[in-house]
Each structure stands twice: as structure tokens, then as C-alpha cells.
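Sample intake — L-threonine 3-dehydrogenase, mitochondrial
Collected from: Takifugu rubripes
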Amino acid sequence: AQMLRKQYGTDNVILSDIKKPSPDVYKSGPFVYADVLDYKLLRELIVNNRITWLVHYSALLSAVGEANVALARKINITGLHNVLDLALENCLRLFVPSTIGAFGPSSPRDPAPDLCVQRPRTIYGVSKVHGELMGEYLHHKYGLDFRCLRYPGVISVNTTPGGGTTDYAVQIFHDALSTGHHECYLRPETRLPMMHIADCHRATVEFMQAPECQLTLRTYNIAAMSFTPEEVAQEIRKHLPHLKVTYNPDVVRQSIADSWPVRFDDSNARRDWGWTPVFGLEELVTDMLNSIQSRRAKEGLPAS
Ligand SMILES: NC(=O)c1ccc[n+]([C@@H]2O[C@H](COP(=O)([O-])OP(=O)(O)OC[C@H]3O[C@@H](n4cnc5c(N)ncnc54)[C@H](O)[C@@H]3O)[C@@H](O)[C@H]2O)c1
Ligand SMILES: C[C@@H](O)[C@H](N)C(=O)O
């Protein structure tokens, strides 16, 4: 929203959720309550605010989805159908993120290309493949301007991890600066594609702004780096040598991670609309530690 508001004006970008926003978010511009399962309310918001673009992020992530399959199906599939119908009815440009989780054990893993077998084994992945296919179907049949990026694990200081399989890659930075000890629920050699949130946001805005004639696909992989818990820990130790990591693999999350790509082939995104990441592992680690450290200092908390 911050990026879009700079370009399009504060009042022209409306954030929504079913959760109360932090005071910072609330003060930064328009925020409304919107439940994606409430079709009438969504329609009212779109009509009353003369919405032209819709960015649909609401979802239950992979690990939390496995713990509550019925709710994940409702939010990730029924909610998506509401959004697709409204986008079509109101000629909106629609962005829906997909994920590395849209692939499964029978997909090529190193690298996973844009087009290949997709047989995910989580309700999250199944719902994301469904979203990719529904959006593309409505694009080809009715001309819906549907755009979808498959994000790697996204790493950010601003939000607490939302119940995904890649959450450890956020938590490890907080633990490094608080207790100096991180207990990892994945095995040390588990490699997954990851991305700094600044790259993820920039990719999304650049992709949304790309002229339609440049797009040869409606769903693209985007990549920045791939690392294992051991590799990110080693990079953090260059700044905080005392970091201790112990491993206690969680059966559910480890088996999800083992079914996902270890690397993404994003050559189509690079060719079609010029995607290039800025953050590699070194830059990511420096930025995350600096940002968390200054946040802790503001809150009067010590760094370990
Ligand atoms: N974080 C990642 O690493 C990652 C990677 C790939 C794709 N994505 C995708 O990006 C999107 C956002 O992910 P995130 O990490 O911010 O997840 P998150 O869990 O932090 O946020 C999801 C949001 O959806 C909201 N929500 C839940 N039920 C809702 C409902 N009924 N109506 C409206 N909102 C509802 C939640 O309140 C929450 O704020 C998801 O679609 C996810 O699949 C995320
Ligand atoms: C990878 C992504 O979709 C999310 N962070 C998850 O782990 O579920």
C-alpha cells in the first residue's frame, strides 16, 4: 500500500482485513473491514469506492491450512470465487498471489519451471493451483485481466509469520537478536526459494503495471535466492557469532517442505516484464538484522 499510495495517492489505495490494524497502518491511509466470504459487502465496497484494481491476499497458509482444512477451503477457494466473480462483473484488474506451494513431489524441483506437473499435497497448494487455473480460464474465456505471481517464502520484519512452512526464515532473525537461540522445525539441509519483502512488493507493482501485450503468461514464477536453515544461520553468524541453532523437525512442515521446489526458474518473468531481484542472502540478512535491531532499540529492548 505504501508503494502504491506514493504513485497513486493515499486515498486511492484502500487496505482491508478482518483483523484490527495496528495504529501505524490505520493512520497511514484508508482501511476498511472486509470479509472475503461476504460477497455483498465486497460488492458494496467495490461499487461505492469505484475500485479498478483488486489485490487479493487473504488466505490461510500451508501449515495452518493443514490444521484446519475446512476453513482453508472456505477462505482460499470460496473467498477466491467471490473475488473472481466481482472482478469479472466490475472489469477489475485482479492480482492473486500463488506460491512455491502450488507444486508437489511429482513436479521438477530444481528448478521448477512455470509450466509443469502441479500435484500439491496440501489444501493450501490445491487452492492456489485452483486459483491459477480459474483466473486463467476467466481471462481466456471472458477477458478478465487476471495476474498471478508465484511467490517464494517471503521474509519481512513488519509482519509476524502467518502459519506457513517458511516461517522459520523470519523467526530466526528475531531469535538471533533476542535469546540468541533458534529451534528450527526443518532439517538443516532443507533448501527452499525465498525473497525479501521489498523485492516481492516491487515485483507485484511492476507486474501489475506491465502492459498486457508484454505478458505471454498470466501466472509467473519469481525468484531471488534459495537457502537452507544452516546457510542462513551461517550468514547471520557473520554478524552475531554466538547464534545457536538446534533442529527439531516437525513432521507436517518437514514433509511439506520436502515436496516443494528447491529453486524457481523465473526466466519468463525476467524476459517478459523485466523482473530482477535486488536482495540476495547477504543483503537480506544485513537488512533484517538492522531493521529488527532498530525496532528493538525503539521499544527499549536489548540486542542479544
Ligand atoms: N508469506 C509468504 O511467504 C507467502 C508466500 C507465497 C504466497 N503468499 C501469499 O500471499 C498472501 C498473503 O500471505 P501472508 O503471508 O501475508 O499471510 P497472512 O496469514 O499473514 O495474512 C493473511 C491475511 O488474510 C486475512 N484473512 C483471513 N481470513 C479472511 C477473510 N475471511 N476475509 C478477509 N481477510 C481474511 C488474515 O486476517 C490475514 O491478515 C497469501 O495469499 C499467500 O498465499 C505468501
Ligand atoms: C511459501 C508460502 O506460500 C508460505 N510462506 C508458506 O510457507 O505457506
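Post-analysis note: The chain has twelve helices and twelve strands.
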